[in-house]
Amino acid sequence: MSSSFFLVSPTLGLGDTLVQILLISLLLLIPSNTIASNGTETERDVLALLSFKSLIWNDPSGALSSWNVSVHHCRWYGIRCGRRHPNRVTALDLNSLQLSGQISSSLANLTFLQRLSLSDNRLSGRIPELGQMMRLRFLNLSVNYLDGTIPPLPGNCSLEYFSLRTNNLKGVVPSNIVQCKKLTVINLNHNFLVGSISPGLGFLQQLTMLSLSVNNLNGTIPATLGNLSNLYILDLYQNHFTGVIPASLGQLQSLQWIQISDNLLS
Ligand SMILES: *[C@@H]1O[C@H](CO)[C@@H](O)[C@H](O)[C@H]1NC(C)=O
Ligand SMILES: *[C@@H]1O[C@H](CO)[C@@H](O)[C@H](O)[C@H]1NC(C)=O
Ligand SMILES: *[C@@H]1O[C@H](CO)[C@@H](O)[C@H](O)[C@H]1NC(C)=O
Ligand SMILES: *[C@@H]1O[C@H](CO)[C@@H](O)[C@H](O)[C@H]1NC(C)=O
Ligand SMILES: *[C@@H]1O[C@H](CO)[C@@H](O)[C@H](O)[C@H]1NC(C)=O
Ligand SMILES: *[C@@H]1O[C@H](CO)[C@@H](O)[C@H](O)[C@H]1NC(C)=O
Ligand SMILES: *[C@@H]1O[C@H](CO)[C@@H](O)[C@H](O)[C@H]1NC(C)=O
């Protein structure tokens, strides 16, 4: 509770003890108050969300105005909490709200998160660490101004949907993506990614969409992609791929749409 109080206090005048005492009394009086709820993990979730809010400097629709301590954090706009762990945040959904600012690195502490969707805003800065989000199934940060590199994906990866398209991301696709066996969508188009396609992507049997177009990827197109029997979109347009188009791609029975032009293929 004291740490939560420190997050609130900088907005008050430093010498404003009376207001601070009133605020403490208020927090103590509200039994359903988020800060006073169960245990340190819940407190960490609340602190992570307040930190997220503190780095958003423009919120024209006022979506985050409900994010205040007089409302239980599970009822804040865009937040969903768990059923078995009722105070733990399982979803953060704030799309197309014209939010400007950075994504707080403290989101890394939302270890129960299953769904993180902040797409189609004006968010800049880096993607928070995802390593502790063992339950993350859905990640959509597409259509923002995010830069830096893509952090490693969660260890025991449960990701099904992975879209970071249309940002300013650099560096390589995290190599541990090949461990995310449940992935159905990988959409990373329109970034500045380098490196090559891991042959391991050909073993992600659930993949329906692989879109890597308009990046700076190089190397050859792995023949293993021909094993993706559920793939219906393969989009590798505008990169620096070399070599030949593997004959194995002819086995892709579900394929509806393929775009490989504007590369350095022979
Ligand atoms: C509070 O935490 C305890 C132990 O961590 C847990 O057994 C209990 O179900 C939790 N209660 C709520 C309301 O989350
Ligand atoms: C907190 O959020 C609630 C719900 O949106 C709103 O009615 C209330 O005015 C807010 N309180 C403050 C102090 O902003
Ligand atoms: C996670 O929470 C702990 C405890 O509140 C804090 O010390 C740490 O800085 C947080 N991590 C991040 C990345 O903010
Ligand atoms: C991800 O975000 C983009 C941009 O807002 C949106 O077009 C797309 O439908 C989202 N994906 C899903 C599965 O909701
Ligand atoms: C990995 O995930 C599986 C199923 O989701 C779970 O049973 C297992 O305990 C997890 N392992 C670790 C090390 O978290
Ligand atoms: C791919 O590009 C990197 C630099 O981004 C370079 O170091 C590497 O040698 C290139 N690989 C191939 C196969 O062209
Ligand atoms: C995947 O494709 C490669 C190359 O086409 C092939 O050698 C390999 O046996 C395939 N693996 C599986 C599991 O189908």
Automatic annotation (TrEMBL):
<keyword id="KW-0418">Kinase</keyword>
<keyword id="KW-0677">Repeat</keyword>
<keyword id="KW-0325">Glycoprotein</keyword>
<keyword id="KW-0732">Signal</keyword>
<dbReference type="GO" id="GO:0016301">
    <property type="term" value="F:kinase activity"/>
</dbReference>
<keyword id="KW-0675">Receptor</keyword>
<dbReference type="InterPro" id="IPR046956">
    <property type="entry name" value="RLP23-like"/>
</dbReference>
<keyword id="KW-0812">Transmembrane</keyword>
<dbReference type="Pfam" id="PF08263">
    <property type="entry name" value="LRRNT_2"/>
</dbReference>
<dbReference type="GO" id="GO:0016020">
    <property type="term" value="C:membrane"/>
</dbReference>
<protein>
    <submittedName>
        <fullName>Leucine-rich receptor-like protein kinase family protein</fullName>
    </submittedName>
</protein>
<dbReference type="InterPro" id="IPR001611">
    <property type="entry name" value="Leu-rich_rpt"/>
</dbReference>
<dbReference type="InterPro" id="IPR013210">
    <property type="entry name" value="LRR_N_plant-typ"/>
</dbReference>
<feature type="domain" description="Leucine-rich repeat-containing N-terminal plant-type">
    <location>
        <begin position="44"/>
        <end position="81"/>
    </location>
</feature>
<dbReference type="Pfam" id="PF00560">
    <property type="entry name" value="LRR_1"/>
</dbReference>
<keyword id="KW-0472">Membrane</keyword>
<keyword id="KW-1133">Transmembrane helix</keyword>
<keyword id="KW-0433">Leucine-rich repeat</keyword>
<keyword id="KW-0808">Transferase</keyword>
<dbReference type="InterPro" id="IPR032675">
    <property type="entry name" value="LRR_dom_sf"/>
</dbReference>
<dbReference type="Pfam" id="PF13855">
    <property type="entry name" value="LRR_8"/>
</dbReference>
